[in-house]
Amino acid sequence: xxxxxxxxxxxxxxxPYGPLSLDPATATLHYAQSIFEGLKAYRxxxxxxxxxxxxxxxxxxxxxxxxxxxxxxxxxxFVESLxxxxxxxxxxxxxxxxxxxxxxPFMFASEVFLGVRPAKHVTYSVIAxxxxxxxxxxxxxxxxxLSSEYTRAAPGGTGAAKCAGNYAASLVAQxxxxxxxxDQVCFLDAQERKWVEELGGMNLYFVRADGxxxxxxxxxxxxxxxxxxxxxxxxxxxxxxxxxxxxxxxEWREGVASGEITEVFACGTAAVVxxxxxxxxxxxxxxxxxxxxxxxxxxxxALLDIQYGRAQDRHGxxxxxx
Length: 322
Ligand code: PMP
Fold this sequence. Notes:
Elements: E1 2-4, E2 8-10, H1 27-31, E3 34-36, E4 39-43, E5 49-52, H2 54-67, H3 75-88, E6 100-109, E7 122-131, E8 142-146, H4 164-179, E9 184-188, E10 196-199, E11 203-208, E12 213-215, H5 226-237, E13 242-244, H6 249-258, E14 261-268, E15 272-281, E16 284-287, H7 294-307, E17 318-320
Parallel strand pairs: 8-9, 8-15, 12-13
Antiparallel strand pairs: 1-2, 1-7, 3-6, 4-5, 4-6, 5-17, 6-7, 9-10, 11-12, 11-14, 14-15, 15-16
4'-deoxy-4'-aminopyridoxal-5'-phosphate is lined by residues 38, 198, 201-203, 223, 225-228, 268-269.
GO biological process, one term: L-valine biosynthetic process
GO molecular function, one term: branched-chain-amino-acid transaminase activity
Cofactor: pyridoxal 5'-phosphate
């Protein structure tokens, strides 16, 4: 669909997948006035197809749009666009295992001009791609590189928005992680370089010896993950004490060393719940175990069981498409 100030949203419709032809002066190519979302369509055993909390993605998309001076897309239109695409291409929703159809809604400045101001021509689109299980052969702990040089987001910046620029800024740190033999990068806060924020594309949780779990609070500089939010509820359902608060990197290191922190996991749409096995930084490393811990596995299974229709959807999270 297209948005202009006079006509609002118009020209909505299904088009065959193919290249976009863009004028070289298209605003988004220069100033990254661009946002996106990521969610999955799941095929249940009875063949029905569902999304998980698409209204939450739609609400986050609205917040991202507001932060990037992009027009508001009603949540109902967002959800409807996903439903329409999935219904039309339902044969692409795989079945079996932890497979899904990954959905990528995005909005960008499609006006042709070189001045710096919010665009007056904006495009919204959704594409989809079948996704296999994130872990092909059993859940394996991943290794994390603690970035000391780079931060992801500063107060007043765009850290809480799912905008293209955040990811552009994180790439060099992700590259550093790979060069240092790690899978993912972990960012600290920009001001004190002391507080744990999140990974490149996942939020973090710490499990304590008493079974309680802690996640860094939303400070305005981390992405409000929908998986993170769902786990706050799920973990409480499973009788874990849940806490949102600031966690320092020293608390992480000392907690693992002393046995106070027994498991650390990351969470997000793509990898669901992923155990962390190792934290490395310039001059040191911390080992956190070669096998996923029991609480990590319990929460991972509880979430997947809801998403794949094997457990009762007590919170009304699932949205049936067909
Ligand atoms: N943080 C960042 C930076 C992300 O890109 C993502 C993925 N959207 C997440 C956290 C996890 O969010 P969600 O659970 O909504 O996928």
